[in-house]
Amino acid sequence: MYVVGIDLGGTQVRAGLVDEKGRIVRREAMPTRAREGQEAVLNRIATLVRDVCADVPWNSIRAVALAVPGPVDPYTHTVRLAPNLAGWRDVPVGDLLSEKLGRPVLVGNDANLAALGEYRFGAGRGIDHLIYITVSTGVGGGIIVDGRLLLGHKGYAAEVGHHVVLANGPRCGCGNRGCLEALASGTAIAREARVAVAMGEETRLREMCEGDIWRIDARMVGEAARAGDDVAGRVMQRAGHYLGIGIVNLMHIFNPRRIILGGSVMKAGRLVTEPMWEAIRERAHTAYLEDFDIREASLGDDVGILGAAALALE
Ligand SMILES: [Zn+2]
């Protein structure tokens, strides 16, 4: 018995044939080419699914699931809005693909499914109360409570990146102010560093970006901080601090046993995790720290495929 997990990205669609133990038996990928329109993309996904299943009997495929960036309705398997797919809006992907494939097709938000994937196959195995947070260009997450993925009334639960950690803080991409994403994401790190350079602060980032502040990204800030640059160090420290505050809020509301951190910003390591832990130790009530730990995500680039596979296996 197998399932197919699909990671539907803005530039690439990746599919994996996955067995019950979470082993990716075969994988295929193709460019998304969202501009060709919805129908063309769905047809190509159907072809990709058949390709990845070519070596096994079709009736051994139990279900297919897609991890989609952006809000989805996990109850009707509809993509509500996918900005990086040429503005897909209210697309019943589950029904449309199921018709083409003759198999159940499920849809989930990518960060939610990453939580499910880490729970089933990765750093959260056996941990029935866990929160997954990805800190990258944006901040997303998924919450497992009592061994189940928390969906919420309409399926929009666990938008951890848009809970406010600094009232009247910087403007977030969502229009609100002071969201975790506006303080701890790679985008926020780059923005803070650009401001510092533009304000004439003494930092090696000025040379690193060759005078063009728009070349500054979170990776460059991390590199400068590691080389001992005070301004870059302060920017990373601030991001880690607010990540810690966000985590304390989540601890007090959900009382997780484990938090799993993924995403490119976490590659900065201690530059982010030290101020993060400092904020947690300072602010979390001690009872919440008992048997509590924080781990790195373990599924890496396969998290999309395996998260979707975990949903298809449910
Ligand atoms: Zn926001």
Structural summary, described in words:
The protein folds into 2 domains: 2-117 and 301-313, Nucleotidyltransferase, domain 5; 127-297, ATPase, nucleotide binding domain (Nucleotidyltransferase, domain 5, 2-Layer Sandwich). With 314 residues, it is α/β, with parallel strands linked by helices. The protein is built from 11 helices and 13 strands. It is 39% helix and 23% strand. A hairpin with a 4-residue loop joins strand 5 and strand 6 (78-82). The radius of gyration is 20 Å and the shape is globular. The mean pLDDT is 96. The protein has a 5-stranded mixed sheet. Residues 162, 172, 174, 176, 179, 181 line the site of zinc ion.
Task: Sum this structure up briefly.
By secondary structure, the protein is of the alpha/beta class. The protein has helices at residues 38-52, 93-101, 110-121, 180-184, 186-198, 205-208, 218-226, 230-254, 270-283, 286-289, 303-313; strands spanning 2-8, 12-19, 24-31, 61-68, 72-73, 78-82, 88-91, 105-109, 130-135, 139-145, 148-149, 258-262, 293-296.
